Amino acid sequence: MKIKFVETTRYLDNGRLLKSKYLYYPSLTFPLLAALTPFEHDVSITFEIFDDIDFEEKPDIVGITSITSNVYRAYEVADEFRRRGVYVVMGGIHVSMEPEEAAEHADTVFVGEAEETWPRFLKDFQNGVRAKFYRAEQPPSLENLPVPRWSLVDQSRYLSYATLVRYKRPPAYAMQTSRGCCFACDYCSTKRFQGTSGFRPRPIPDVINEIKALSARNVFFMDDNIFSDPEHAKDLFRALIPLKIHWGGQGVIAAAEDEEMIRLARRSGCYFVVAGLESITPAVLEAMGKKDNKVGSYERNLRTFRRNGIDVDISMMFGFDEDEPDVFAKTCEFLIKNKAPYVSWLPLTPFPGTAFYKKLKSQGRLKHEKWWLTLRPEAEKKIYTLLYTGAKMSDEEFLEAFYRNYRRFYSLKSIARRLVWPPKIRNIVRIVINLSIRRKISTQATVVEH
Q: How many other CB atoms are found less than 10 A from the CB of residue 101?
């Protein structure tokens, strides 16, 4: 059979599709599904953010995945292929949260992780007995996973952090050493998607063998939290040290409470960690179930990462019921004071399937119950708007303060204060990245303001 995988992009406020020449790291989903597909089938992968979709192709199966903010476009693509007589399947977190909705646009819908259901579907398809829904009844085993088929991906499109730091351009690989999270934050859908089994590690030898099989030098570990189990993390880092790779991953700021683990991470090649501080207001963290984050420990935790040479790419969220109008200014001052190298600001978003979404829906506070279906080309400006009512500031006040302080963090004065001293070669890379983000934010703000 001929199988085509498509990862869709989304619409910008000007009605055009979001396109990019480069991204930092590739998505793991389709290279892994391709590896789970018998080799007698012809498999291709299209990332719409890079390349246009060829609707003239006539594959036997088109598989589509999308995040919630892109799903309107995903449904458009699915509908167009079906109109042309192509069999369409859909999966991913959003589809797993809204399977009946997705079933209106797909011939078959996958709910949950697909390591076991995808091969079963392919056999059913060839036997003419395919089902409408394939559900992962329990989390699949992570042992003996195949090596993802990265040969199907144009890796020249990816500029990784290690590329910038080391001035080299090795292929960038996405991997997982575990799945699941031991926390259950109200705004996160991970628990719902992956079940209640919590943290599930891959055997460390499997991870090492995958790195060796790919001759990988540059890796992003896509674990929900690579520090979830400290002892497992330490064993993993010790096993990585001889491989001399450069890597980044997702974690939690509180991991810094165990400095031995952070030192081992750095020795194993860790250059940066993406971590959600989310808020500097303790009441917010308590209300949303972010129990591991302790505001009083943030400064010490950030120093620990910085002392060990690991950058923390911080994410902050705004729009909580407890947020006062001055939360943006206070957050900006805190981040500058603590020399945060990078930060991403996001509005609190009610993703389907989360406890937060259910709470807002029960309270009648959602502006649109299925807000993701409003993100179409002709929609009004929607960058970083709140999708619900009841915040302690109007939408206009929220956007104005959001962008004023976001731009302040990436101002030239702030960049100089955070990154010029002490002078280091690596700070040049940090400054270049900051200037690039500064331009992007200025463009976004201009769109909103006009």
A: 17
Q: Where are the domains of the chain?
A: 2-135, 167-449
Q: Is 216 helix (H, G, I), strand (E, B) or coil?
A: coil
d(CA 92, CA 317): 24
DSSP string across 250-278: EE-GGGGGSHHHHHHHHHTTEEEEEEEEE
Cβ-contact 285, 306 below 8 angstroms: no
CATH superfamily name and code, 167-449: tm_1862 like domain (3.80.30.20)
Give the bridge partners for 248, in sequence order.
220, 272
- Helix or strand holding residue 445 (H, E): helix 425-449
User: Do residues 81 and 55 lie in contact, with contact meaning Cβ atoms separated by under 8 Å?
Assistant: yes
Which of 229, 211, 213 lies closest to 175 in space, CA to CA? 211
**Tokens 């120093």 -> residue:** 303
Q: Which tokens in the block code for residue 67? A: 């995040």
Distance CA 258, CA 48 (A): 41
Residue where the block lists tokens 């996160």: 188
Characterize the bridge pairing of strands 87-91 and 61-65. parallel
Distance between the two ends of the chain, CA-based, in angstroms? 49
138: which DSSP letter?
Answer: S
Does domain 2-135 match CATH 3.90.400.10?
no
The whole-number pLDDT of residue 450 equals 47
Give the C-alpha distances (Å, rounded to integers) separating 233 from 89, 226, 238. 36, 7, 9
CA distance 199 to 224: 9
Predicted structure pTM score = 0.92
> What does the H/E/C string look like for 28-44?
CHHHHHHHCCCCCCEEE
Which one is predicted more confidently, 346 or 382?
346
Please say if the pLDDT value at position 36 is more than 70: yes
- Region of 92 on the Ramachandran plot (φ > 0 left; ψ -120 to 50 alpha; else beta): left
Picking from 410, 365, 386, the residue whose alpha carbon sits closest to that of residue 318 is 386
CA distance 189 to 94: 9
Q: What is the mean pLDDT of residues 321-335?
A: 96
Residue count (the chain) = 450
DSSP β-bridge partners for residue 200: 179
- What are the residues whose beta carbons fall under 8 Å from the beta carbon of 37, sequence distance 6 or more? 3, 43, 118, 119, 122
Give the residue from 8, 15, 26 showing the smallest Cα distance to 74. 8
